[in-house]
Design goal:
With 776 residues, the chain is of the alpha+beta class. 29% of the residues lie in helices and 22% in strands. Among the domains are: 4-33 and 478-625, Aldehyde oxidase/xanthine dehydrogenase, molybdopterin binding domain (Aldehyde Oxidoreductase, domain 4, 2-Layer Sandwich); 207-300, Aldehyde oxidase/xanthine dehydrogenase, molybdopterin binding domain (Aldehyde Oxidoreductase, domain 4, 2-Layer Sandwich); 416-476 and 632-774, 2-Layer Sandwich (Aldehyde Oxidoreductase, domain 4), CATH 3.30.365.
């Protein structure tokens, strides 16, 4: 936990716990951000991807001659030109219930034998200008024999369904099971009550503000690739591209990332277009740029969610939970992303427990390939869905058993005296006070005033309901993370880390941690994240772990600075090292008022020149923070909705949250992260859904057809903190980036169900669906 000097520093203006505005904001708000598409390299050419208009079909040939003859065209490439490159594939070592590995799929940069979703890239054109490349792309001839398509996982499992791959019988790539099936079935057989719901987690388009873009370069002298691209971590992306796809040593590829306009999981891994621009750059000897257009993004950016689940909860007569069971179909799309298989398997398993002491759980998920855009992580990546399933079960069970749902939750909460709590899912919960969080949320929501508000709504012919979204999220475990501090000649200090900011605002909280620890002036702190040449480790950003990883790495590197500084200060102050103390940014001789500030010391030892061998010539430090356990952010959202009987339109009238995110470094940024997650959860709950036709054509390929929440769809969101510091990382932080989704899905949908008299309705609860439910 925090040492005395760090605790004292929290009282300062820029210390831990202070709502410091984001360092990035002036640049971004003034339009001075630099995203990949903003870059124009000398001599660059343009790339346009040719995509399949068919969801499923056999490729007989791709005609390129007409395209090659178009003005400005520099090259047209098909799968035959890309045979030297390796494949993208699933990377997590998940296994079937019988212990065999999942059936993997090798995806090349361009489709070679078959196309497997609308938007599958089959060729690309490079020309002098973007308009020339687009014109030429329209001249590429696709000789494809269309086949029957399948777009739902349950349909892909049916006998006689179209088969996407010869080596994937029945389209099944993973048959996952976790839990003691016999013990769970016995618990259900003897339970006083069983609640079962059929629940759909609808497919989502990520809708990042910045479309994907990439610029490939080839350095012929060093025989080295350079890729400029928006991503979630340059170290991990370099490892994937260099090893699996380009088949070159890691030092032969440099990844550079500037500002990134959103990702939410989608931009974490490699895509075919990245190999295409690198190949073209090497062939043509000049930079090659590609930027997607919005419909291309709808087709080719990996989607999120998409599970069909039967969720069941077994209870005794008092309402104690005996066992929970999920049986799911997971839709993987036409190919396997690196992590797509994990959402409905490992993350369902880790998060269905939530904050309840349920003694038994069983997760059975079958993942299928279909003729749809591949699925990958989307804000929470299975964590919000699992919490949603559990909370819908709890609320429905309480209604069916005529028990108080709040009392039922408290009866089943893990108690503070049970920590550390070894969960049924294998996790070791370290801290929390879940009933206190729930009580505070009830108080903040004006729970007792609901009856009067409901009566007032009814007086206007409206329906009103309220919903509780209790949640606990198991974050991703921090991987090895670099912590490096460089004392620059201009008097600044640079933090180098392997996480990567794509909207979170890392610079400010990282600077707060360093300022609190070392007393470095806040305004002198810089941040480097997006250059793979600067990194020796890096877990990237995702899974709500950045501060736990980078924050710990910064503290570890700072300890090295203090050790070096004591040696240097001893030399400069002519004192023994053991007599040098450090506090609040200053090295002092114990028992005297003689000392030197850390920034002055860094400058002095640089100026002195050659130093004795045992005296460091700089305060620079670099370390790799080793892996730490996952953390368990939790909280409670309470939502009230009002429904128009005549139209089915939903208004979210009130919304409050109480959250345990452990030690909060910057409450302003944390609140913003919560708001963003809640907005995306409301979008999934009420508005968003990817729709396909029977032949696999996407029907929601633009914002004319796909809705996302706007400002007038969202309520004022109450935010309170009830922290229980995490005990397994030095900052005591728990992560917060995905928690907004985890609480909002159940809170909104439980409120709708309450307004509808307990009926279950699937997401998205559009006015049409609600109106139909009201008609019976």
């Amino acid at each position: 936990m925090l040492d005395a000097s760090l605790a004292e520093a929290t009282k300062q203006k820029f210390g831990i716990g202070q709502p410091v505005p984001r360092q990035e904001d002036p640049t971004l708000l003034q339009g001075r951000g630099r995203y990949t598409d903003d870059l124009a390299l000398p001599g660059q050419a343009w790339c346009v991807i040719v995509r399949s208009p068919y969801a499923h079909g056999v490729i007989n040939g791709i005609g390129t001659e007409a395209a090659k003859a178009m003005p400005g065209v520099l090259g047209v490439y098909t799968a035959a030109d890309m045979a030297e490159y390796g494949a993208m594939r699933a990377t997590l070592p998940l296994k079937n219930r019988d212990g065999t590995p999942l059936t993997n799929i090798q995806r090349g940069p361009l489709a070679a034998d078959k196309v497997r979703f609308v938007g599958d890239p089959v060729a690309f054109v490079v020309a002098e200008t973007k308009s020339q490349a687009k014109d030429a792309a329209e001249m590429v001839e696709m000789d494809i024999d269309a086949l029957d398509a399948v777009t739902e996982a349950s349909a892909a499992a049916a006998p006689g369904a179209p088969q996407l791959y010869d080596h994937v019988p029945g389209n099944l790539v993973l048959d996952f099971q976790f839990g003691d099936a016999a013990a769970v079935e016995a618990a259900f057989a003897t339970a006083a009550h069983v609640t079962t719901l059929s629940i759909r987690s609808n497919r989502i388009v990520v809708c990042a503000m910045e479309p994907r873009s990439a610029i490939g370069e080839w350095d012929a002298v060093e025989e080295r690739y350079v890729l400029r691209v928006g991503c979630q971590g340059v170290f991990g992306l370099r490892a994937q591209l260099s090893k699996d796809i380009l088949k070159v040593p890691a030092d032969k590829l440099r990844i550079l990332t500037g500002n990134v306009g959103g990702s939410f999981g989608m931009k974490a891994s490699a895509y075919p277009e990245y190999t295409c621009v690198l190949h073209a750059a090497k062939m043509l000897g000049r930079p090659v740029k590609w930027t997607d257009e919005r419909t291309g993004s709808f087709l080719s950016d990996c989607h999120g969610r998409d599970h069909e689940t039967e969720a069941s909860l077994a209870l005794d007569a008092a309402g104690r939970f005996l066992a929970v069971k999920l049986v799911s179909y997971g839709n993987m799309g036409g190919y396997l992303s690196t992590v797509g298989n994990n959402m409905g398997t490992g993350n369902f398993m880790k998060n269905i427990q939530s904050n309840y002491a349920t003694p038994l759980l069983l997760v059975e998920t079958k993942n299928y390939v279909t003729n749809t855009t591949p699925i990958t992580a989307y804000r929470g990546a299975g964590r919000p869905e699992a919490n949603y399933f559990m909370e819908r079960l709890v609320e429905t069970a309480a209604r069916e058993m005529e028990l108080d749902p709040i009392a039922m939750r408290k009866l089943n909460h893990i108690r503070p005296d049970q920590f550390p709590f070894n969960s049924t899912n294998g996790s070791a919960y370290d801290s929390g006070d879940f009933s206190v969080v729930l009580d505070r949320a009830i108080a903040a929501s004006d729970w007792d005033g609901f009856a009067a508000r409901k009566a007032e709504s009814e007086s206007r012919g409206k329906l009103r309901g309220r919903g509780v979204g209790n949640f606990l999220e198991c974050t991703a475990p921090p991987m090895k993370e670099q912590g490096e501090l460089v004392f620059e000649e201009d008097g600044s200090v640079t933090i180098v880390t392997g996480t990567l900011d794509y909207g979170q605002g890392h610079w400010t909280p990282f600077a707060q941690v360093l300022h609190a620890k070392l007393g470095v002036p806040f305004e002198k702190i810089k941040l480097v994240q997006g250059d793979s040449d600067r990194l020796i480790a890096g877990g990237g950003t995702g899974g709500s772990k950045s501060l736990m990883a980078s924050g710990a790495a910064i503290l570890e590197a700072a300890d090295l600075v203090i050790d070096k500084g004591r040696k240097a200060a001893g030399f400069v102050l002519e004192a023994a090292i053991e007599d040098i103390d450090f506090a609040e940014g200053r090295f002092t001789i114990v028992g005297t008022d003689r000392g030197i500030g850390i920034m002055e010391l860094a400058a002095r030892i640089r100026e002195i020149g050659p130093l004795p061998q045992d005296v460091p010539n700089s305060l620079d430090s670099r370390t790799v923070y080793q892996e730490a356990p996952m953390a368990f952010p939790n909280g409670c959202h309470i939502c009230e909705v009002e429904i128009d009987r005549d139209t089915g339109h939903v208004t979210i009238d009130r919304y409050v949250t109480v959250n345990d995110f452990g030690v909060i470094v910057n409450p302003l940024l944390v609140q913003g992260q919560a708001h963003g997650g809640i907005a995306q959860g409301i979008g999934q709950a009420l508005i968003e859904r990817v729709a396909y036709s029977e032949d696999g054509q996407i029907l929601t390929a633009s914002y004319m057809d796909y809705g996302i929440p706007r400002a007038d769809d969202l309520p004022s969101i109450g935010f309170e903190s009830a922290p229980s510091p995490c005990t397994t990382n030095p900052l005591g932080a728990k992560g917060c980036g995905e928690a907004g989704c985890a609480g909002s899905l159940p809170a909104v949908m439980n409120a709708l169900s309450d307004a509808l008299g307990g009926r279950h309705i699937d997401m998205p609860a559009t006015p049409e669906r609600i109106w139909a439910a009201l008609q019976g």
